[in-house]
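ERR on first pass: missing label on line 2. Operator R.T. fixed the label and resubmitted. Corrected input:
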Amino acid sequence: MLALLGLVMVFASCGDQGKSSSNGALSSSAAEKVYVAPGEQDDYYAFLSGGYSGNLTVYGLPSGRMFKEIPVFSQFPTSGYGYSEETKPMLNTSFGFVPWDDSHHPDISQTNGELDGRWIFINGNNTPRIARISLSTFETEEIIEVPNSAGNHSSSFITENTEYVVAGTRFAVPVPQRDMPINEYKGNFKGALSFISVDPEDGRLDLKFQLMMPGFNYDLSHPGRGKSHGWFFFTTYNTEEANSLLEVNASQNDKDFIAAINWKKIEEYVNNGGGTKMPANYAHNVYDEHTHAATTTMKKEVLTVDPTKVPGAVYFLPTPKSPHGCDVDPTGQYIIGNGKLSADLTVHSFDKMLAAIEGEKFDGEAYGIPILKFEDVLAGQVKSGGLGPLHTEFDDKGNAYTTFFISSEVVKWKVGTWEVIDRKPTYYSVGHLMIPGGNSRKPFGKYVVAMNKITKDRYLPTGPEMEHSAQLYDISGEKMELLLDFPTHGEPHYAAGCPAELLTPNSKKIYRLDENKHEYATLSTGDARVERKGNEVHVYMSMIRSHFTPDNIEGVKVGDKVYFHITNHEQDFDVPHGFAMIGQNTSELLIMPGQTKSSVWEPKEPGVWPFYCTDFCSALHQEMQGYVRVSPANSNIDLSWSLGGD
Ligand code: K7E
Ligand code: CUA
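pass 2 clean. output:
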């Protein structure tokens, strides 16, 4: 296999390099297809997960220009996310404050199986969490921790009316967690699949139930849609339940499973009082757009469901070779399992699955869950000729596109006939790919973005580490055409995309000052003041081009905890101000028009200490500065402050 891989890579790189001189970007007018002239805008948004950055990045297509990094699971000093008093609660968990995660799979909310552009969801793998991000403010609004889970990987995918965002555990663990020998894993660990309901009005998340599955590794998942709406599909590996040397021991079985979950049936069971409540401990963090502040609630209970107690709700579909990707076509008829150690793709048929269930044609069971016969559910196999298939997306013309990690290529094939239509190399070792709307009933089949794991020689070297590389292909014709390489940030796994016009009309421009409900807001300059409560000093400050009010503060003492609560009085689009205090053990604050943010400073030495605006906001931005006088702890200088004009 390795020798073959070597050959394939040599072949792919030589072959294409030869081509690129005679058939490069300019000669094929690829440049024109990605060129967005100065002042023009892109046609699509693309949201790429940040992987080990813990965040989400926003790009434009076809230009590949990066517009924003949205902090989600990681502290972000650029804006103060996770550092400001208001946003620190977003990163609370049952393990305490966890300022980092590994985010893989963004998914945009849907109505009737089509993207509705309200929210985007993303998973935190390491300390299991699901986040909801507003696509109006592009801010993280909510994070819910997922108990009884570990390596929250088969997440965060949504059902076709955003009824649920679904999160499956990759690592099976003891439930509840307890001290036990690791080699007693088999038969004792559990794999929790969590169904988190999404409020249709405000998007609020609630962990509705957890399905306690056998202790396999639940790798990826996708919702049924159309005819298969109401079902959810999860790939598994390590059905061997090995606990050591998994690269060998978890590859023993010729076939693992795709778990087919009839969540509507389980929902009904739960709504009729089914399931068992068990004690749990998990954080639910909500950011309020009007108070500009987040709160944490610790939840103490979770409803668990034993799959064997809900007949007809859970089945296993045998799928070869440790499948990774689990993808459902736009019609909801086909479920594609990509055995990552295989060359062929396995396509299951939803109709055949239903017929096999109806006929009760089972091939035994695993922990009481019926196993369907492989031949009975198989719709077809794609003889791809590639190696190491990972993920599949779909266009609007009945085609599918599968990435091959080992042979570094994207293969286009026809849904229904399974014939390969085209293949193009990627540079190098592609993971996920994304077609805007590709995980919905209505894909926008103009472009596919391939997200590659290895960059090597594609860019100027930047030391041992290179940013990962994405590639944009035009897929509007019969053959794919490589248009563009662009660097990405962190390690994008999956991505989600949508037409720009779905989001731009609702994009928030400012926060209205008259709707600011922050506890410490300073809504008029006349209200600016400084108050002492014991050793806490609260500074009610406002900011507008180009000054802070107050800008001189005296009477602060060593040992005080100084809270700066700063309200940006601008009501113009794109006029944030920043705030930074010398020696402060936290990051700056970047405060949007109409918003209030707070940060705490504990002065350690007497002196006169300056602060300033960090965002070049006007011709007199450099003048946007002030001083805090700090006196010794035993000083009796009274608090005073200057109210410059406004
Ligand atoms: Cu294949 Cu986390 Cu979806 Cu990476 S995962 S590529
Ligand atoms: Cu405000 Cu610079």
